[in-house]
Structure formats: structure tokens, C-alpha cells
Amino acid sequence: MAEKEKVVLAYSGGLDTSVIVRWLQTEKNLDVIAICGNVGQDEKDLEWVKEKALKMGAIHSEALDMREEYCNTIVKSAIQANGEYEGVYPLLSALSRPVISKHLVDIAHQYGATTIAHGCTGKGNDQVRFETCIHALDPSLKIIAPVREWDLTTRESEMDWASQHDVPIPVTKKKPYSIDDNLWGRAIECGVLEDSWNQPPADIWTMTVDPTEAPDTPEFVEISFEQGVPSAINGEKMDLLPLVIEANKIAGRNGYGRIDMIEDRVVGIKSRECYECPGSMLLIEAHKALESITLDRETLKLKQHMDQEWASQVYYGYWFSQVRNAIDAFNAYTQKFVSGTVRFKLYKGSLLMDGIKSDYSLYDESLATYGEGDTFDRTASKGFIDLHSLMTSTWSKAQGPASGNQPA
């Protein structure tokens, strides 16, 4: 009997991938190797995911702890790039896909698998991200996306199929949310959230307390950075992984970090998404604040444009690309002096900067002050303004006063 081809499945233990483990065996006659990447999901122990796949017939299953690699290679870059898609939410699903894809490709090589499979939907972003990353790492690997092929067109029909084929699933028809989470935050969609007028149900939030129920006393927190990377909280030095975990706790207990938005997916549709990103929002805001005092005006202006481009490229799945690498090289230079400490006040869902300091600060109090000790040379302003306005005064003389050049 000929040996079956092997397929490496990106496996989470959720509805789609639980059904897919069985489907790949029954419909495609493939031997399944199920790989679950721990990038900081709610569960600390993902051994149950590994065992579940084996019980459903997978020939091999692994739950790999990718958290430190994820933090030190990808989250680090996201902080330095202020990685917020459409200027609103910190990228999170898009960040975890490259590290998971890298391991999927490595394991496919290790076991001689010809194919990689994933459980992404046919109109979501993650199908684009996984497949773009896999193509960049090994274009010869085949890819199967069962959700694009099967006739299980709704989550309810998937649940029915799972029941008929003895596939244990973690969702119910009463509460059919789709959740993707890692240490950088949680993404929640589907169910009642698909109606953009519906208020998000209280039970979707797990990392943050309701702001109205947060402590009545403000909490102050100090975030320190070394070359653009968070290095300490309240003076306590930490590696990035435990620091992110601690930031999630601090911001979460103060009700900070909830987002409800309409975003533009890669495939061209608008989607209603809820995000819970307490630690990532706290750290990115701290990083932005520190950049404001250590980078000059023109560098900041260019970097803000580059940050938007970085976030878009990563959101689109181009982690393994020339442009992302080039922007990271730009950031490597800009972050040389982004070191210092930012103090925030957290109170019932709000975040206010309360102080900032850096040994490399470009803020000079003697130049900024209007009091004693002022060293700014006011006599230089007249000549500066004459030169600064030369372009517009020349235009006005040649083509008429500016007021007359306005549209009717």
C-alpha cells in the first residue's frame, strides 16, 4: 500500500481546524501533522490541543512554545514601528502569522510533507497572510484551504458536520464568536457583532475590566525603554515577554485597551471587529511619547508615514518582503536614542501622559521657557519669517493676493 502524502496543518483546536483534521483524512486521504503555535493565547498549557488532534487521527501533533521568539523578533519590531493598522489598533493576528508560518515550513521539511493546510476563511485576512508567508519561505509547497473548498458555508453547518463526525468543538450556536488571541491582544468577530449597530456583549472582553468597574483611584505606571524596546516597568528590569504580560495586567485592570471599529480587510470588504489590546496600546503609546522627545521634527514626520506603511505591509501579509525589511532598517537607525522613561496615569479606561524624561531629550527647557533663563534669540525671528514666507509673498506679487486666488 502506497504511503499517504503528508500535510502540515496550522491547528488551533478551534471550530474550523478541529473539523479540518478529520476532513483532510476523510476527503483528501492525507496523513495529518497538526501544529499548534503558542504565541500567548489565553491558555497557558496547550497540551490539550496536541492530544485532541492525536485522538482525531493525526499521525503527529505538537504544541510549540513560540512566545519568546515571537516577542524578541516580531513584537519588538512592531513596537519600534508603532504598528497600528489604519492608525487605530495594534496589529496582532497579522504579527503572529509569520512566526507560525516559519515553523510550519520547517516542520514540512522535517517530515517530508508536500502540503500545508490552514483553517482560514475564504474572505478573511489570514488566508492571505499564511499563504503569502509560506510562498516566500518555500514556493514549492502546496497549500490547502479546506474552508474555501467544502460546502460548509456557515459556522452552524460546520458545527453540525462536527457533531456527525464526532469532532469535539469549543463553540456553540448560542455563542458563535470567532476569537484569535495572542500575548499582544485579542480579536473578536462574528455572531451578534456582525450587526454594526449591536453593542458588543460584555462577555467578549476577558483581558480588561469594564471601565465603569475599574478602580476609583488612578494608577500611575512608568515604562522605560532602551533603544526603542521596553526594558522596565516601574523601575523593574524585565525581558520583553514578561514585560508584555505585566503591561496587559496593569492596563487591563484599569479598563484600558478596548477597540470597536470598522476596518478595511485585505480582500476589499469592510469588517466590524472588536479588539482587546491593553498592554500593546499602553506600550505603543509610551513608545510614541518617547519618540516625540528624542526624534527631530523631520524624522518624526517621515517615520509617521513609514509607520503607517509598515503596518499596512504587515497587515497585508508581507512580513517576508523587501519593503518590511527596508523599513525595519530605517527604524534601526531611528531607535538608537529612543531611550528613557514615560509615566502614565491610568483611570477608568483612560490613559494620560504624566511625565517623560530621556538622557537624549531634544527638549531644551532654556529654549522653550517663557520665564527666566530663556536663551532663545528673538531677534532672529524676523529674518527667519522673511525667508520662510518668501515663497508665498513672491506668489502673491506675481499672481495676485492670496485671497483673490481662492476658488469662487
UniProtKB/TrEMBL annotation:
PROSITE patterns: ARGININOSUCCIN_SYN_1, ARGININOSUCCIN_SYN_2. Residues 6-168 form the Arginosuccinate synthase-like N-terminal domain. The gene is argG. Pathway: Amino-acid biosynthesis; L-arginine biosynthesis; L-arginine from L-ornithine and carbamoyl phosphate: step 2/3. L-aspartate binds at residues 121, 125-126. It is found in: Cytoplasm. PANTHER family: ARGININOSUCCINATE SYNTHASE (PTHR11587:SF2). GO terms for molecular function: argininosuccinate synthase activity. Its EC number is 6.3.4.5. ATP binds at residues 10-18, 119. This is Argininosuccinate synthase. Keywords: Amino-acid biosynthesis, Arginine biosynthesis, ATP-binding, Cytoplasm, Ligase, Nucleotide-binding. It catalyses: L-citrulline + L-aspartate + ATP = 2-(N(omega)-L-arginino)succinate + AMP + diphosphate + H(+). Gene3D superfamilies: Argininosuccinate synthetase, chain A, domain 2, HUPs, Single helix bin. L-citrulline binds at residues 89, 125, 129, 178, 263, 275. Residues 177-393 form the Arginosuccinate synthase C-terminal domain. Belongs to the argininosuccinate synthase family. Type 1 subfamily.
